[in-house]
Amino acid sequence: MGYQLELRHFHYFLAVAEELHYRKAAERLFISQPGLSRQIKQMEEILEVELFVRNKKKVALTTAGEYLKGELQFLLNHLELTKKQLTLVNEGNFGEVRIGFLGSAMQNVIPDLLIRLKEKFPQIKTSLEELSNTAQLEAVIKDSLDIGFVRLARVPAGLFIKPVFEDTFSLVLPKDHTVDSVNFKGIGQVAKENFILFAQDYSPLYYDTIMSICEDAGFTPKVSHKSVHAQTIFKLVENNLGIAIVPTSLQYGFQMNVKFIALSHIPQRAVLSVIWKEDNRNPALRHCIALLLNE
C-alpha cells in the first residue's frame, strides 16, 4: 500500500476525536463527511490500529485512539509554538512566554514579573490567560502554556513547582456587618453565617484550606454560593448574601462596600506557586524563571 501518514491526517483525527461526531468534525474542517471518513480509515490502515469504535448511535475512541489523541495534542501544540517562536526570533525577539494564572496572582506577582521582564529582557513577548488550577496543569503538560501560577500542593512527575508568594487570609464582610476589626475575636463569631467560596474544582487546595480554617474553629461552614471570580464573591458579600474568606491580597483593586479582617493569627497561609515543565525547551522561559526565583 502506497499511503503515507501526513500532517492532515493528524488534524482530521483530532477533529473527530474531540467532536466524537463525523458530521460536526467535517463541518469544522470544511470537508465532506465521506471524505473525512475515508481519511480516518486510511490513517487506521497506515498505522494498522483501530482508532474509533463506530456504531449507528455513537463514535468512541479505542484505547489506542485515546493515547494518540493525547500525543497529537502535545505534538501539534508544540509545532504551533515552534512556528510562533521562529517568527519572533526572526524578527529579533527572544520568543514568547505563555503564562497561565489565577486571579489573585494579578494583584502582585504577575505585574512585578512583567515589569522586570520588560526592563531586563524587552525582546521577550508575553501572553496571559486566566485559568483554573486544573486547566493550567493540563495546559503546561500539553505545552500550550509555559508556566502557570497555581495553588497546588503537588504536581505530576515531569513538572517543577516552586512557591513564589505567601499570603495571609482575610475575612470578607458587608460594610455594615456588626463584626469589625475592633470586636473580632475569631472566625467562630461568624460560624452561623452563609459562606461564599471559590469553587472546589477551580482551586481544590484553597477550598480544603478554608474548610480547615473553619474546622479549627469548631464548625463546618454552610456554603451557599461558589464562584471562580473574586469580584462575583465580593458582590455577593456586598449584597448580604453571605461572607467569604479569601487571600488578603485580593482586597486590592476592587471598590465595593465590603470590609476585610486579616486572619493573621491562624497557621494557614495562601501559597501561590509557579509550575513549569522540566523538558520545556523555550529559551525565553529560563529568563522568566530566573527573574521569578531571583536566581
From TrEMBL:
Keywords: DNA-binding, Transcription, Transcription regulation
Record has Transcription regulation as a keyword: yes
MF terms in GO: DNA binding; DNA-binding transcription factor activity
InterPro entries: LysR_HTH_N, LysR_subst-bd, WH-like_DNA-bd_sf, WH_DNA-bd_sf
HTH lysR-type domain sequence ranges: 5-62
Annotated GO CC locations: protein-DNA complex
Transmembrane domains' residue ranges: none
Annotated family: Belongs to the LysR transcriptional regulatory family.
PANTHER family registered for this protein in UniProt: HCA OPERON TRANSCRIPTIONAL ACTIVATOR HCAR, TRANSCRIPTIONAL DUAL REGULATOR HCAR-RELATED
Protein name: DNA-binding transcriptional regulator, LysR family
Organism in which the protein naturally occurs: Arenibacter nanhaiticus
